[in-house]
Structure formats: structure tokens, C-alpha cells
Amino acid sequence: MAKIIAFPRDDIAYNECLYAAVKELGVEVENGAWAGRWLHQHVAPGDLIHIHWPSFSYFESGSRWRTYENLVRFCAVLMLLRLRGARVVWTAHNLYPHEGGRGEWTHRFARKVVIAAAEKIFAHGNTASRILQAEFGIPRAKLVEVPHGNWIGYHPHTISKATARQALGIEPSTFVYCMVGACRPYKNIEALVDAFRQLDGNCFLLIAGKFASQDYQSRIEQLLEQLPSARFRLDAKFIASDEMQRYLLASDALVLPYTEILTSGSAMLGLSFGVPVIAPNIGSLADVITRDCGILYDAAVPDGLVQAMEQIRRESYSADAILTYARSFEWSTSARVLATVLRETEPEKPAYRSGVTST
User: Fold this and answer.
1) I need a surface site. Which of 61, 179, 219, 260 has the fewest CB within 10 A?
2) Backbone phi, psi, residue 206, to 5°
3) In a domain, 284, yes or no
4) In the chain, at which residue ranges do the beta strands (DSSP E only) sit?
5) What is the pLDDT of residues 271-329, one digit of tens each?
6) Helix or strand or coil: residue 348?
């Protein structure tokens, strides 16, 4: 029986949730190794090779020559897989890797190779699909739109807002803006700190996550030093799954001022805790964030982020309504589409809602 071979299957939240739903459909999912001998032993005709982040298989940030060597191997193995009768699909989580991006020719080349080899390309929503078409000229028939599943139940949700704030030393009456997760330059934390600095009133900035580099952490720390110490908290560390609820439940708004994004798991994380999201009107964020669960702003407007952060304090949101909306983004929908492709029939159209009425 044909199976899915995932690159990767384990140790990434998105993949773990997706493939758990796939397995519930009775489909076998194996964790792949991008090596000719392993693939020769494990891949059979009809198997589905599911690629998520192509750069994981070739890119070495510290070695240009190692990247070239890996890229040649990556392309050769992909060709051999096709010759062996395997089929390839790619979930396009991002347009290019966040570090290097379009400016790195190996990323551009690798994506062209994957697109040429792929039977289907999965995109998280209509906007992401149109961006992929415009960038790579992908035929519309090759693109399949699937939802990014929610994180409800993935992270513990066992404490109250009051308990979360008490644990972090935040006053009950203050309005809390939060950013949580890996702190990388594309997340534009500089803009968040600068916008917060311009706000008046009883508000607090909470930033939690491990920094991509010491240099970037030092840059953000220097910006935060311009604020009164009582107005912010920086927890520059890896946030474990059981700690995630503390930061999100202590927050009134999750702020994601990204410079570029195709798909955002962080936005769905906020919604999965009933927290409204502020984000630029780019990528799949444009499809996910509605007026009832947050604010989209125009990043081209100089004070767009500041205006959005001010506006959200005047709005009223229902955590229950946001959670109901988040539940409509089901992993089972994506799993059914993937299983359908494996069985060589036309994938069904995902049925997930695009809006919610708050109460």
C-alpha cells in the first residue's frame, strides 16, 4: 500500500499535528531521510514524498561549498525518486527561507526544481496561492488550498488570565501587547518596540522567545532600554509548550509586525488562545485575520502599526468567538486532501470558514 514519506515528520508542531490527523485516516506516514541509500530501501512506486522546507535538505549557512554540494545531491535524489515512481508534493510554508530569501540563488533554484517535480503544491489560503503563482508561475491546477490547522489542545490551557499575569508580575488592569515565539529579524521586533514607545496610557509590552543571534538580541535590548523598566518584560529564552499559555493568556493582543510572511503559525496560535491579533495585510494573514478576531494594517503606511495598536484598545472582542473561529481551521481538512492526493484522485475542496461574528 502506498504511503506518505515526510520531510520531516517529527519534532515540528505543524507536522506532528498534520500527520496525526493523516494517520487517523488509516494512511501510513514515515519519517524520511534525504539520502539515496535510505530512499532506495524505503520508497516504492506510488509513494508520496511530502516536502515542507526544501532548504532543510541542502542549505548550510556557514559553508557556501557545502550548500552547493548538498544542492546537487538534493536535485539528484529528487530526480531518482521520480524515476523510481514516487510522487512529490510540497507544502509552501514560505516563499523563500526567511534568512537569505530571494537574494540567495540556491533557494530560487531549489524551489524551481521542487515545483517542476511536484504533482501538487499546497498553499494556506487564496492570498498565499496567488503570491506563489505570481512569484513562480505555477499553473493554477497544481495549487491546492488547505487551511493551517489550529493549535487548540496542542499547548496546555489550564490557567486563568489572572494567574498568568500574577506569574509574570503584570498588573490586572494594564493592557498587554505580546509577541511570543522565536525572535528572528523578519518578525520586525524593532518596529514593535518603536510603535509601543509612541503609545500613551496604561499599557505593557511582553516579548518572549529565543533570539536567532546574540547580535539581534542586543539590538532589541538596547531599544527596550529607552522604555521605563516597569512598562515591559523581555524573556529571551526558548518558550516550552507548557509555558506558552502563561504569555498568551496574560495578553490582550498578539502583535505580529512581520516584514514578510506567507503563512503564520503564530497568528493561529494567538487565535487558539482566544487572543486577537494585530498583523500587516500580507500573505495568508489577509485571509485569516478578520475584524472579529483582530486588526490588519497597511505596512506601507508609516504609522500603520501604531494606529492598529491604539485602535485595538478601543475594540471589544469575545475570546469564545475567536476560539470558535479557530476551531474551524481543522487539521483533518488538510489530512483528507493529502490522503486524496495519495490515492490519486482529485483533492476535495477544503470547507473552512473565513469569518466569525463576535458576541
Assistant:
1) 61
2) -120, 120
3) yes
4) 4-7, 29-31, 48-51, 87-91, 120-123, 143-145, 175-180, 203-208, 232-235, 253-255, 277-280, 294-297
5) 999 999 999 999 999 999 999 999 999 989 989 999 999 999 999 999 999 999 999 99
6) coil
Contacts of 278 (CB under 8 A, 6+ apart): 177, 253, 254, 255, 256, 257, 294, 295, 297, 305, 308, 309, 312
First to last CA, the chain: 48
CA–CA separation, 259 and 186 (whole Å) = 5
Q: Are residues 56 and 125 in the same domain?
A: yes
Tens-digit pLDDT profile for residues 64-76: 889 999 999 999 9
Q: Which of 169, 209, 187 is nearest to 278 (CA)?
A: 187
Q: Which three cell numbers stand for residue 319?
A: 475570546
Three-class SS of 49-97: EEECCHHHHCCCCCCHHHHHHHHHHHHHHHHHHHHCCCEEEEECCCCCC
* C-alpha cell of residue 89: 508534493
Question: What one-character DSSP code corresponds to residue 141?
Answer: G
- Please indicate, yes or no, whether residues 168 and 20 belong to a single structural domain of this protein: no
Q: With residue 18 as reference, give the H or E element that holds it.
A: helix 13-23
pTM over 0.85? The answer is: yes
Report whether 96 contacts 107 (CB < 8 A): yes
What is d(CA 107, CA 59) in angstroms, rounded to the nearest whole number?
8
For residue 242, give its domain range.
161-326
Phi, psi dihedrals of residue 4, rounded to the nearest 5°: -100, 130
CATH number of the domain enclosing 124: 3.40.50.2000
Integer Cα distance of 300 and 312 in angstroms: 19
- What cell was used for 264? 503564520
Are residues 297 and 312 both part of a single domain?
Answer: yes
**Residue 203, in any domain of the structure:** yes
The CA–CA distances, whole Å, from 7 to 30, 203, 207, 227, 326 equal 9, 43, 31, 43, 27
Smallest CA-to-CA distance from 115 within 93, 143, 134, 94 is with 143
Looking at the fold, whether 183 and 288 belong to one and the same domain comes out as: yes
Determine, yes or no, domain membership for 169.
Answer: yes
Residue 250 identity: A
